[in-house]
Amino acid sequence: MHIKFIFIKGFRSYKDQGFTSITLHPGFNVVTGRNGAGKSNLFAAIRFLLGDLNVGNNSEDRLKLLHSYGGNTMQTGYVEIVFDNSDHRFPIDKTEFSLRRTFGTSKDEFSIGNNKLSKADVRNMFEAAGFSSSNPYYIVQQGKINTLALMKDSDRLDMLKEVAGATVYEDRKRESIDIMLESESKSIKIEEFLKYIDERIKVLDKERKELELYQNQIEMKKQFEAYIIHLEANESVDRIQYLEQEKEKYLKQSSRLSKKLERYTDELKRDESRFNKILNEIKKIDNEKIMVEKLNEVFDKQKAQLVIQQKHFKKLLSKEQSKLEKLQKEQDLLGSSKEKLEKEIEIVKPKLEELISQEDDIDNKLSSTERNLQELYVKQGMFQFKSKVERDKYLGDEGSKLEDIVKQYEQQAQSLEEDVEDMKQLQQTKGKQFDTSMASKDKEAEIVKNAELKLHELKLEKDQIEQQVSSTFQSINEMKSNLTEHRNEWKKAERNLQTIMNRPLSEGLTRLNQIRQEGKIKGIHGPLVELFDIVEPEATLALEVIGGNGLFHVVVDTDDTASKILEILNTENIGRLSFIPLNRVRTKPPKFPLLENDLVYPLIKVISFDPIYSEAMKLVFGKTLICKDEATAEQVRKSSHVDCITFEGDVFHSKGAVTGGYYSKKKLKLSSYQQIKHWRQQYQQLQNQLTERESELEKLQASLLAIQKTIRTKDDEKNRILSKNDNSRVELDKIISERTMYIEILEKKQTILKKLKIDIQNCKDTIDGYQKQINTAFNTKLTEEESNLLLTLSESSIQLKEQKISVSSEVMKLQSRKNQMTNQLNQNYCKRLMEIEEEIKSLSPENSQLQVELKQKEIDEIDTEIDGVRQKLESLVQALNEKDAEIKPIKVSIDALKQQTSTIADQLVADGKEMEILLAQIQNYNKVRDAKQLRVLSKGDRFNFEELKQYNKDQSVEELNKINKSLASLRHVNQKANDQFNSFTNQYKSLEARRDELNESNISIQLLIRTLDNKKDEAIARTFSGVAKNFTQVFKELIPGGSAKLVMKRQMDDDEDDGEDPKEWADGETPKGLLTFTGVGIQVSFGEGHEPCSMRQLSGGQKTLVALALIFALQRTDPAPFYLLDEIDAALDHNYRVAVSKMIRKHSREIQFIATTFGPEFVMDANQNWIVVFNKGGSKLVPGSTEDALNVIKQLDNGSAFDYSYKGITDEEFNHDIPILGVAEGKRLVEYEFKRAKKKAMKALARAEQACNVMMEDDPNLDPEGSDASEKLKHDRKIFQKLHKEYLRRLAEYNIVKDRFIRYGGIIRQLPDKDDMENMEEDQQQQTSDDTEMKDNADSGTTTTTTTTTDSKQKSPPKRKSTSDDTSDIETSDDESKKKQQQQVESDIDDETPSQRFEEALVSASQKLKLQGLQESEESEKDDEGEEDESDSSD
Question: What angle do CA 1356, 1357, 1362 make, to 5 degrees?
Fold first, then answer.
């Protein structure tokens, strides 16, 4: 057995190990990797699965195991190992299986495939496979080596004891002692109880005699009681006759009163009907009055609202008229002011134009004068020029400059002309926009006015519809109220009918109505009572009596329909119904007399129905005649021999019987159903009317919604136009403002253009002057004429400038005044006039006047309605007074009739109670008579009343009292004395047997304790001896030339060298004073010439090597399936690591090793190298070659501390001196298992042969061909099949263990010898004794059960060191011949002969059963197999 694959997910550093293509080698596996890569976590994962790692039980501890990287923690994880189980060390019928342990914060569970296992199951499975909890050294960690090296001698002794399994023996011994103490305690209690029972038996013997006397007295008492009953039965007959006579008197009186009560009841019913009718009329009138009063209140409220609205519109009209007058006055005032201002503007305009013209003339004159002056000044300044050329150049330059200025001025003038044209066009555009806006404004005002008129009309229409909706809604509420009343009356009539009918019929009809509503079953016409109408209401009682329950028979088209309905009723277990299938009903025509008149006619003529139901109606009503009175009915019945009935319900049967009497009208089913039918029709009619009114209401509401929607649309359109009107007003103001602004800009630009043209002309004139001077001769002085002209021009220029200043001032004043008046005209007068005009247009006193007139019209209409309502209210009050006067005498009559009927009813109730008393007495006397006669008849055989005839009833009672007094003195007698005496006697015998069993059990337990002590000593001695031998051998292999031994020390051993060497103990010998050992010492020598020394004298590396040698010795003594070694070579030097590596490689021949290391030695000897890498937040185990592993070690070996010269173990070293790992102990276990399996198989064979013989033997007391013999053979065959299967299962287990025994060197003889036959006979005897003991234990109690449990524990597969007595004779050779193990010879089981005989016996039994006609069903065989499986699992 070894590990093949390891899967890890979510465990510590392993995020997801995944699948590796290479399996773990069954030999030596070496794991390398960097520090922190996850090597230790790999071993921790394996230990976690094996249960060796302590992880705690809470969620926090398990959370620490989950993989976490980068702040992300996995929620669950698992560790899964695939085991190779080809040697079947695990108790699983698979050569390979996977064990998984899944964990998380909230779970921790084991599983194999889909099967979940508990921790105890897993622990037991590992124990069975050889992972002993007493020897945990199959997992060697770094710290464990150091602990073992520094261990004290006493601790080392405890460790070896634990490895030997001493704790198992101690646990079993402690359990046996507890059981023995419990048995002794029970024995003491049994002794005490036996004393109590003995005393109780003596008392019960005396009580038995008293009980015999008491029983005789009881017998006499019963005889007198029976005689008194006999006398009382005779008295009861006389009393019953007297009571029957009294009953007849009351019956006659009740019949007379009943008829009188019926007459009064009919009168009362008629009066109550009239009273209820008038009362209903009063209620209707009263309800109508209330509605009229409410309507009057509504009209009053509407009138008040209309008056308020009219006042509102009048106030609004007054306000609008007053405002209109004010606006008109303001409009007139502003109009006159506007005209006056416009006139002033017209006056200022010519003056302004004249002044501007003057200013232009002055400018022209001034320009000409200035130009001439400039020429003269230039000419006067020519003295500065030296020649004409210089002067002409200067004048040419100045002319060029002026020409440039002229070009600029012309460009500006052109631009200004374009701007002026644009301004003129804009001014025209704004004028057009102004005209368009004004026209649009007028049009929108007209639209708004029309919209308001339309809205007013729609609102009037809406008010009318709302009034109609209100009246319709009131009518619907009234109808709903009436509908509720009709429905209540309908349900009340149905409840009354349900109380009259029996419950199954009522439930059946209810379910029938549901079936009809579902519509799944066709052809259901309904109950008969639904299918006809009563033509003569006075014949209702006659129809009720004749119809009976037939009134509610269900009419269907075919009997198949009836079957379907019955199937539903039976399935649901509800109701009972009778059916009339029309396809089956055929009636014979009745033999009625020919005389048919008003006194006699067929009953079927008082009803009307559909012709298709004629056969059903004839079936119920077609055989009876209805007669007007009893005399006529009697006469017709005698003459025609037909059934007749009167209108009062008295039936005259054709055979002479007459039935009749009083019928309560409240309990008539037909009348109740007619009431249901009436109210249902009324309800449906009113429901239809309500539906029509609701439909009308929906139409009105739809119209109302449409009008409201139209009103909203019109209102939105009006608001949109008003909003647009407001925007138009703003736009109009903007247009006016822009228009005024454009006019001002145009005037400014025209003025600038005019000045610019003048400047251009002046510049051109200057240029012409310069040109003239260039053409003249060069002269630096002015002539006299030119000097006078210069003086004149200068004076003229000054005068012109003064005139210009004066004129310009006037122009500015007039221009400012004109602008001021224009702004006032445009911004104030014109704007305000427009606003006034809009306000006047917005005012609509005509609409207000129209509203006032409309409200007045509505008020007049409301007044007309109010007058009509008040007149109707007065008529209703008058009608109420008339009905009150009409109902009063009827009420008086009803009260009188109620008083009379109450008196008669009270009398009838009193008579009824008397009748009930009489009937109860008669019934009681009848019961007493019958019971006493029955008791007399039942006791007539026991008692002879002839002996007691001398006693009358009083004397008999007196004798009975005497007997009762005698019994009273014996009332404390123990009635169960006989039973208790027998019970205590049997219990005394049982307890004696139980006490003997407990004593025998204590003897067996003491024997068991002694056996356990001996086995424990043997196991400890054997373990000490084996470990000591293996320790010496291992140390020699690790240190050639060295020596080592274990020394068993006692308390008196002071020196290090003192003590016993376990190797010197003889095989199978238990040393004396084994329990006196206080410790285990170690003496080692590291080569020839070295003195032996103790552990304290060694260095750290030497201690580590010695500790490893001890671990290898433990492994050889008790080998595990595989070993986990975690860096055990860390503290060793190169030579020691080479020695340890070679030893592991040799051991790996039979056992798997998984080791981690940082050195190259293990890598060189490994069968498979593995490398742990850490990448992307997770560790992974990947296979690698030897070179890959060495590269990892070399990367970690920074200081070159390792020696890489070792190249691995050679084949010669590997095959030399092959170690033997636990062969002797393993052979003992295998041989023990072989003998145990063989013993079980032999027992199973013996049981099967015994059952086969019983099955094949014929019972001489039974008939071979009879049923009893067949049943016995069938029973015996069943038992044999069960035992045969058990034998085959035990034989298969034996063959598996036999193969293992042969592999360990055992020899099997094919035929059993005499010893085996004797052992077989002993096994059969032991089985017989076991069966007897098992049967006794089933009756005994808990002590024997506990003992059996202990024995079963002893029989379970022992641990590696706790062998049974069967292996005590197995011996191993001494040290010189340890490689040649002694071969044990055992006999085999002959399975061919019994198997053939068993098959022949089964065939023979089956043939017998077939001949006798008995065959077992497949189901019984399956049951047998289930029982066999159950017995197998509980074996």
Answer: 105
Spatial contact of 752 and 433, defined as CB atoms under 8 Å apart: no
Q: Which tokens hold the place of 266? A: 């009919």
Pair 1115, 132: CB distance under 8 Å = no
Do 1241 and 1293 meet the contact criterion of CB atoms below 8 Å apart? yes
- Which candidate, 1214, 1128, 1123, places its Cα nearest to that of 1165? 1214
Compare 1266 and 1416 and report the one with higher pLDDT: 1266
Answer for the pair 527, 559: CB distance below 8 angstroms, yes or no: no
When pLDDT is cut at 50, 70 and 90, the band that residue 1429 belongs to is very low
With beta carbons less than 8 A apart as the criterion, state whether 556 and 524 touch: yes
Q: Is 1332 exposed, middle or buried (0-12, 13-18, 19+ CB in 10 A)?
A: exposed
| DSSP for 895-919, written as a single string | HHHHHHHHHHHHHHHHHHHHHHHHH
CA 1373 to chain centre: 72
- Write out the two tokens for 912: 């009824």
Share of the chain residues as helix, strand and coil, in percent rounded to the nearest 5: 70, 10, 20
- Going 784 to 786 to 787 to 793, the CA torsion angle's sign is positive
Both structure tokens of 609: 């129905």
Residue 1331, pLDDT score: 44
Q: What are phi and psi of 1082, to 5 degrees?
A: -130, 130
Residues in the chain: 1435
Q: How far is CA 1255 from the centre of its chain?
A: 59
User: What are the structure tokens assigned to 929, written together?
Assistant: 């008579």
- E strands along 1016-1147, which residues? 1043-1050, 1077-1085, 1122-1126
| Residue 214 Cα to chain centre, angstroms | 71
The residue assigned the tokens 């005496």 is: 981
Burial of 374 (0-12, 13-18, 19+ CB in 10 A): middle
- How far apart CA 1370 and CA 1383 sit, in angstroms, is 9
- CA angle centred on 989, ends 988 and 990, rounded to 5°: 90
3-state class (DSSP) for residue 593? coil
* The pLDDT of residue 1069: 52
**What is the rounded distance in angstroms from the CA atom of residue 691 to the CA atom of residue 117?**
73
CA distance 347 to 353: 11
918 within 8 A of 246, measured Cβ to Cβ: yes
Tokens at 1243, concatenated: 């027992």
- Please measure the distance between the N-terminal and C-terminal CA atoms of the chain and give it in whole angstroms: 27
DSSP 670-681: HHHHHHHHHHHH
Task: Judge contact between 1382 and 1373, C-beta under 8 A.
Answer: yes
Confidence category of residue 1053, pLDDT binned at 50, 70, 90: low
Q: 1136 with 17: CB under 8 angstroms?
A: no
Question: For the whole model, what pTM was predicted?
Answer: 0.38
Run of H or E residues at 1178: strand 1178-1184
Q: Residue 1299 corresponds to which amino acid?
A: D
Quote the tokens at residue 135.
Answer: 């020897």
Q: How far apart are alpha carbons 762 and 409 in whole angstroms? A: 11
CA-wise closest residue to 752 among 354, 363, 412: 412
C-alpha–C-alpha distance, residues 924 and 655, integer Å: 35
pLDDT of residue 1354 exceeding 70, the answer is no
Write the DSSP symbol of residue 1064. G
- For residue range 751-784, what is the model confidence (pLDDT) as tens digits? 787 778 777 877 887 787 777 777 776 666 667 7
Q: Could you tell me if 1107 and 145 are in contact, meaning their C-beta atoms sit under 8 angstroms apart?
A: yes
Contact status, residue 1273 vs residue 1408, Cβ threshold 8 Å? yes
Query: What is the identity of the amino acid at 1037?
Result: E
Determine the pLDDT at residue 728.
66
Contact call for residues 1084 and 1098 (beta carbons, < 8 A): yes
**Cα dihedral: 592, 598, 602, 607 (round 10):** 170
CA angle 131, 52, 111 (to 5 degrees): 80
